[in-house]
Design goal:
Blueprint lengths: L1 E8 L4 H9 L4 E7 L3 H11 L2 E2 L3 H5 L4 E7 L5 H10 L3 E4 L7 H14 L3 E2 L8 H12 L5 E9 L2 H4 L12 H4 L3 H17 L2 E9 L11 E8 L4 E7 L7 E7 L2 E6 L2 E6 L21 H9 L10 H20 L8 H18 L1
Parallel strand pairs: 1-2, 1-4, 2-3, 4-5, 5-6, 7-10
Antiparallel strand pairs: 7-11, 8-9, 9-10, 11-12, 12-13
Helix pairs in contact: 4-5, 5-11, 5-12, 9-11
């Protein structure tokens, strides 16, 4: 029996993860910790686990091999660095960090520790995304010139973040608003498909004002090193989301409408785009299930790397900065993030 701990229970996906953990006969959640004691008690009761009074109790427990971090984003760095030092495998809910500085610091620590890592980019496992990534790799699109991806729902309109999950609409705690919360899924797919970006910018907006000045929708523009141009849309104020993806290349085209893929390529027999393309690979298990499988010993589980997660936090930070400054911004890489941490450390030392 593999023993885990739940470290932070703030994220809106926590109930789903609790349900998954309860259904795994090979897993047992030994302890639950959260800075909010009532939240810890609630989830511990659901899991039949004990409540840990201090984080150190969890991380010093040799029987606990992995932790699931579902805290507020601004608490990730403290928790992840401590878990890495303790040698615990970890699932950390997305986004990894508030921005480049803390996200790359966490990636550094995770890589040094050599522990398993996963985050919640579940969109990778969709049959459509898996198929399109294969076709991009095989050259079916030729030179890709444009890609658009969007992730939208009606969360603000439905008041999803009014009560228990209110912190997710506070960028000081979440690092982002609606654009970053949902847009990070689209960003992951775009980077997974097209590689590195050179510079980005965005425009964000507030529609209902339900959560103060927290952004509720936005559009991003990404210039990829390959020469492709990407547009990214995300928001919590959409009453419909019929078209989620468009890829255009010199040899092919794809779009997703109503959950159906329409694919055209000069290099693939039968791909004339006239009807939905049904020859798709099987879906992957959810990203969280993949992590649990890896902890249980599966060697080929396709996990997101900590560095990939850090890059996505850095690019999203740059998109928000581009929106604030109304100009193009280059995302900070690992070395720039390390230098920024060094400067911040020296400033803190001078203050002391």
């Amino acid at each position: 029996m593999i023993q885990l701990a739940l470290v932070g229970c703030a994220h809106i996906h926590t109930p789903g993860f609790v349900k998954t953990l309860k259904a795994r006969p090979d897993m047992r959640v030994k302890s639950v910790w959260d800075h909010d004691a009532e939240r810890a008690r609630k989830n511990a009761a659901e899991l039949g686990s004990r409540v840990a009074g201090r984080l150190e109790e969890v991380l010093s427990d040799g029987e606990v091999s992995a932790v699931v971090v579902c805290s507020e984003t601004n608490r990730h760095e403290e928790l992840v660095l401590a878990a890495a030092e303790a040698g615990k495998h970890m699932f950390v809910e997305k986004p990894l960090g508030m921005g480049a500085r803390d996200a790359h610091a966490m990636a550094d620590a995770i890589e040094r520790a050599g522990v398993l890592f996963q985050t919640g980019y579940a969109s990778r496992g969709s049959p459509i995304h898996l198929f399109l990534r294969e076709q991009i790799a095989s050259g079916a699109f030729g030179k890709i010139t444009r890609m658009r991806h969007s992730s939208c729902h009606s969360g603000s309109l439905g008041g999803w973040f009014d009560k228990e999950w209110r912190w997710m609409a506070d960028p000081k705690l979440a690092g982002v608003g609606a654009f970053g919360d949902l847009g990070t899924h689209s960003l992951d797919i775009m980077l997974w498909f097209l590689g590195e970006v050179e510079e980005v910018t965005a425009r964000l907006g507030v529609a209902t004002g339900r959560y103060g000045d927290c952004d509720e929708y936005g559009e991003g523009l990404l210039a990829f090193k390959s020469g492709a141009v990407g547009t990214l849309a995300a928001g919590w104020v959409d009453v419909a989301h019929p078209v989620g993806l468009i890829i255009s290349g010199t040899e092919g085209h794809a779009h997703v409408a109503g959950g159906k893929l329409f694919f055209q390529s000069n290099k693939v027999e039968g791909a004339d785009g006239s009807s939905s393309w049904e020859k798709l690979p099987p879906a992957w298990p959810h990203a969280f299930e993949l992590f649990l499988d890896a902890v249980a010993g599966r060697k080929d589980a396709p996990l997101v790397t900590a560095r990939e997660a850090a890059v996505r936090s850095a690019v999203m930070e740059a998109l928000y900065e581009g929106a604030r400054r109304r100009e193009w911004v280059r995302p900070a890489g690992p070395e720039a993030a390390r230098k920024a941490r060094g400067r911040a450390g020296r400033r803190q030392a001078r203050k002391r």
